[in-house]
Specification:
alpha+beta, elongated, single chain
Length: 294
């Protein structure tokens, strides 16, 4: 007897059943999603975001808000200064001390360890007059500063900021000033002293002109030679007196050269008496002496 095998229907085979289950699951999932609404992603608010630049100073991080202080030290009428600053080490500064009577003295210093110190200011080694003095500290333009300083402050001092920074015709500078009281030598009446020296110059000038006029009519060589020696001595003494006086340097410069002109005029007059005169030179010297004695 022959046994005939009958094949199972496709829907009863295991792989068909598994496939059907998978398809059914997918269909059920799709049906469930149809009733849902998808909310769009909310936009990002700019007010709640953190910028990558937050906390960073937008200004130049190399900026220096210049600060400077200076203290005076007065001893026996002479004054020196020390100070502190946040300007770079190596910065060159100029200290100027002056008063209303015409005194002025300067000193160059260099910043070191965020500070500076000057030598003593005096009147030719003597005590300054008792007076109120102005003290000015100046940082010149960047072009005259050392390269290491320019690297910090900028080629045109553009990194320097603050109330002490000034814009000038040739570039930015730094300046600071204050007034100080110095108790030193008795105050000199400059006006009176200058008038006295001018009178002495004028008297010598008149004496020289009168003597020359007298000898131009009738030359007495012995008498002229005697006069010339005495005149040179008196003018030299006057010049030394002016140079060693308490007058300021600027005041001495207007008076002391007149003494040299008097000596030169004496020589020019002597040449004229010997027939070798130069009228243009004589007139030039006379004009200069008259201007100094005004």
């Amino acid at each position: 007897m022959t046994i005939v095998k009958t094949k199972k229907p496709v829907y009863k085979r295991w792989w068909f059943i598994l496939l059907a289950v998978f398809v059914l699951a997918v269909a059920i999932g799709a049906a469930l999603d149809e009733g849902k609404t998808v909310s769009p992603t909310p936009p990002v608010s700019l007010s709640t975001t953190t910028s990558v630049d937050e906390g960073i100073d937008k200004g130049n991080t190399n900026d220096i808000n210049v600060e400077l202080i200076i203290n005076e030290n007065v001893t026996a009428g002479q004054v020196s200064f020390d100070g502190a600053t946040n300007l770079p080490n190596g910065t060159e500064l100029m200290i100027t001390v002056s008063n209303e009577s015409g005194f002025q003295a300067q000193s160059s210093i260099t910043v070191s360890s965020n500070g500076f110190k000057t030598e003593k200011f005096s009147d030719n080694g003597q005590a300054l007059e008792s007076d109120v003095y102005n003290v000015a500290v100046t940082m010149p333009i960047a072009s005259v500063q050392p390269d290491a300083v320019k690297e910090i402050i900028g080629e045109n001092s553009e990194n320097l900021k603050g109330d002490l920074v000034n814009e000038g015709d040739f570039g930015r500078t730094v300046s600071y000033s204050k007034s100080i009281k110095v108790e030193g030598a008795p105050k000199v009446e400059h006006g009176t002293m200058i008038k006295d020296y001018k009178n002495k110059i004028d008297e010598s000038f008149k004496t020289l002109k009168d003597t020359y006029k007298k000898h131009s009519k009738s030359l007495d060589e012995v008498e002229w030679a005697r006069f010339a020696r005495g005149f040179k001595q008196s003018v030299s003494k006057l010049r030394n007196e002016i140079d060693e006086s308490k007058l300021n340097q600027s005041e001495k410069i207007t008076l002391s050269p007149a003494c040299a002109d008097l000596e030169m005029l004496l020589t020019a007059y002597a040449a004229s008496l010997q027939g070798r005169g130069d009228d243009s030179e004589i007139n030039r010297l006379k004009k200069q002496i008259e201007e100094a004695a005004k």
